[in-house]
């Protein structure tokens, strides 16, 4: 086998090579971690060794506290994400294809998308307190406006010919929206939900910054006080793994529901 | 009486920050029942605009359009259209695509399926009823698009360079298929192309358009007997028509290049 394909842009490489490169880079990272910790280059309260993190994980799986934190974080993320997605999908689709909706909503989304969610936390606390509602609102605000903009882009890119074609087949405006515009948007919508789900995970720690008593973000922040870097890393890894799982589920959903779609 | 009548159609529009454009200037056109009319012209001559007007997707600045004496206002299932771009609905199977129009009309499902399967057979795609558009080649997609437009049993079939994106072999097969279907089902067709050979092979009448502003420069009836087989393509009649249209279009190209 020639090695030329490895160095040519946009050329497929053998599956074995791809697998080797993937595991290789992870192995190098873990190796470096081992070297730093077991080699005595970093003290444990700066960077915990892999076995310490594993032990912290086993202990918290054993007393179920890790699952309590995961459950609490998932509740916040999923609630905020659903609360954002359910209105953002139809509104975004209409915004991308109806100039009137676009004119009405665009100034607000254009402004809101640049405001960091963390800047709104003090107001959120004043308005809705420090309960779970506040945390859900952080996820909501972090995803809703981005979703609107991304989905409206998807809708704007739907081919005009597809819509004109439906008209010449006898469809009314309402039928064109229901039977052409919405289904045509679905692959793009699902792709962008997948992307914004990733962002929702990144807002989690911000959401649990204030007055939380459970959740992965809380676990991480709480561990910081005692310099328990093993627990911090455990929290970070858990979020990473959960993120990967949700990403995979979205991919699966896309393949199952939208197998007709050409691009993936 | 002719089925389609366009009288003194003018279309002007105003692009942002640019001078007004006259896309069509005083165009009049007659298409008789059950005939195959072809409009041939260079790109940018407004021939697509003309077809979109008949489809009801655009409205003229002035002039009148009637189909069977009824004024044309807005799109309708009695004017089916096949587009140059691939417009099959990708989330529907071949059969569901063809059934789209009949279903909107509220026909029973079994009846829609019968109509669809009959047309799918007519365009030579039996066995592909359950396939999705992404699995089909360009030529096959346009055959489904033709079947879908015919499923509504439209009074006129509008075709906007439907074979423009296909390679020349596929294009030739598609022309033969279209003529076959047209002869079997007796439809009135208004077909647009910039390919002169295609215009002469297909048309009962050919209307040559000129660019900027779009006008119909000459209309001619093509009296080459059908079926027009390969011998007809090299006949002297065919060559005469071709020479005439070439000259008309060349004069125009020269004019356009000067301005």
Give the helix tally of chain A.
Answer: 11
Gross CATH architecture of the domain at 4-78 and 154-258 in chain B? 3-Layer(aba) Sandwich
End-to-end gap of chain A: 28 Å
> By CATH's scheme, which homologous superfamily of the domain at 4-78 and 154-258 in chain B applies?
P-loop containing nucleotide triphosphate hydrolases
Could you report the average pLDDT of chain B, rounded to the nearest whole number? Answer: 93
Using the coordinates shown, work out and report the CATH topology of chain A. Answer: MetI-like fold
Strand content of chain B: 15-25%
Distance between the termini of chain B: 40 Å
Main location (chain A): membrane
Transmembrane segments (chain A): 20-41, 74-98, 110-130, 136-154, 200-221, 227-250
Subcellular location (chain A): Cell membrane
InterPro entries (chain A): MetI-like (IPR000515), MetI-like_sf (IPR035906)
Layout of SSEs?
The complex is a heterodimer of chains A (264) and B (259).
Chain A: H1 4-7, H2 15-38, H3 50-62, H4 65-97, H5 99-112, H6 117-128, H7 132-156, H8 160-168, H9 173-207, H10 216-225, H11 229-257
Helix pairs in contact in A: 3-11, 4-5, 4-7, 4-9, 4-10, 5-7, 6-7, 7-9, 8-9, 9-10, 9-11, 10-11
Chain B: E1 4-13, E2 21-31, E3 36-40, H1 47-55, E4 62-67, E5 70-71, E6 79-82, H2 94-104, H3 109-122, H4 138-151, E7 156-160, H5 168-185, E8 188-193, H6 196-202, E9 205-210, E10 215-221, H7 230-233, H8 236-258
Parallel strand pairs in B: 3-8, 3-9, 6-7, 7-8
Antiparallel strand pairs in B: 1-2, 1-4, 4-5, 9-10
Helix pairs in contact in B: 2-3, 2-4, 3-4, 6-8
Characteristics:
heterodimer, A: 264 residues, mainly alpha, MetI-like fold, globular, B: 259 residues, alpha/beta, Rossmann fold, six-stranded mixed beta sheet, four-stranded antiparallel beta sheet, 8 helices, 39% helix
Describe what this molecule looks like in 3D.
The complex is a heterodimer of chains A (264) and B (259). With 264 residues, chain A is mostly helical. Helix content of chain A is 79%, strand content 0%. Chain A is globular, with a radius of gyration of 23 Å. With 259 residues, chain B is an alpha/beta fold. Chain B has a domain of 180 residues: 3-Layer(aba) Sandwich (Rossmann fold), CATH 3.40.50.300. Chain B is built from 8 helices and 10 strands. In chain B, the strands form 2 sheets. In chain B, strands 6-7-8-3-9-10 form a 6-stranded mixed beta sheet, sandwiched between helices. In chain B, strands 2-1-4-5 form a 4-stranded antiparallel beta sheet, with helices on one face. In chain B, helix 2 packs across helix 3, helix 3 crosses helix 4 and helix 6 packs across helix 8. The longest helix of chain B has 23 residues. Chain B is globular and about 55 Å long. Classes of the chains: A mainly alpha (264), B alpha/beta (259).
């Amino acid at each position: 086998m020639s090695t030329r394909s490895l160095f040519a842009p946009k050329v497929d490489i053998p599956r074995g090579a791809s697998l080797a490169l993937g595991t290789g880079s992870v192995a190098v990272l873990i190796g470096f971690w081992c070297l730093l910790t077991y080699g005595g280059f970093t003290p444990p309260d700066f960077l915990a060794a892999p076995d310490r993190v594993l032990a912290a994980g086993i202990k918290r799986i054993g007393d179920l506290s890790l699952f309590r934190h995961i459950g609490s974080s998932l509740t916040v993320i999923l609630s905020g994400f659903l609360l954002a997605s359910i209105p953002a999908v139809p509104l975004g689709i209409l915004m991308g294809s109806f100039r009137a909706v676009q004119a009405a909503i665009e100034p607000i989304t254009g402004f809101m998308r640049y405001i960091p969610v963390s800047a709104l936390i003090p107001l959120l606390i004043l308005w809705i307190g420090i309960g779970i509602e506040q945390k859900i609102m952080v996820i909501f605000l972090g995803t809703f406006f981005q979703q609107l903009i991304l989905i409206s882009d998807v809708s704007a890119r739907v081919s005009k010919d597809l819509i004109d074609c439906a008209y010449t087949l006898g469809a009314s405006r309402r039928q064109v929206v229901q039977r052409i515009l919405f289904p045509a948007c679905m692959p793009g919508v699902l792709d962008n939900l997948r992307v914004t789900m990733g962002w929702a995970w990144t807002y989690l720690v911000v959401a649990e910054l204030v007055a939380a008593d459970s959740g992965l973000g809380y676990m991480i922040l709480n561990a910081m006080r005692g310099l328990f870097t093993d627990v911090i890393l455990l929290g970070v890894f858990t979020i990473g793994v959960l993120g990967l799982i949700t990403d995979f589920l979205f991919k699966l959903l896309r393949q199952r529901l939208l197998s007709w779609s050409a691009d993936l | 009486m002719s089925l389609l009548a366009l009288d003194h159609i003018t279309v002007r529009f105003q692009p942002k920050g640019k001078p007004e454009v006259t896309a069509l200037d005083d165009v009049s056109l007659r298409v008789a029942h059950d005939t195959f009319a072809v409009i041939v012209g260079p790109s940018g001559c407004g021939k697509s605009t003309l077809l979109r007007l008949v489809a009801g997707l655009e409205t003229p600045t002035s002039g009148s359009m009637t189909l069977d004496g009824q004024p044309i206002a807005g799109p309708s299932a009695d004017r089916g259209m096949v587009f140059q771009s691939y417009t099959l609905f990708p989330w529907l199977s071949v059969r569901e695509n063809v059934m789209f129009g009949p279903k909107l009309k509220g026909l029973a499902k079994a009846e829609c399926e019968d109509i669809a399967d009959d047309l799918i057979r007519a365009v030579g795609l039996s066995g592909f009823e359950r396939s999705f558009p992404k699995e089909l080649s360009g030529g096959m997609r346009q055959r489904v698009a033709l079947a879908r437009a015919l499923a509504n049993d439209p009074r006129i079939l509008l075709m906007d360079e439907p074979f423009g994106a296909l390679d020349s072999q596929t294009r030739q097969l598609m022309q033969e298929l279209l003529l076959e279907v047209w002869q079997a089902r007796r439809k009135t067709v208004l077909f647009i192309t910039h390919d002169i050979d295609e215009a002469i092979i297909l048309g009962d009448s050919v209307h040559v358009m000129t660019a900027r502003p779009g006008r119909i420069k000459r209309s001619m009836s093509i009296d080459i007997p059908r079926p027009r087989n390969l011998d007809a393509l090299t006949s002297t009649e065919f060559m005469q028509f071709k020479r005439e249209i070439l000259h008309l279009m060349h004069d125009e190209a020269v004019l356009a290049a000067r301005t």
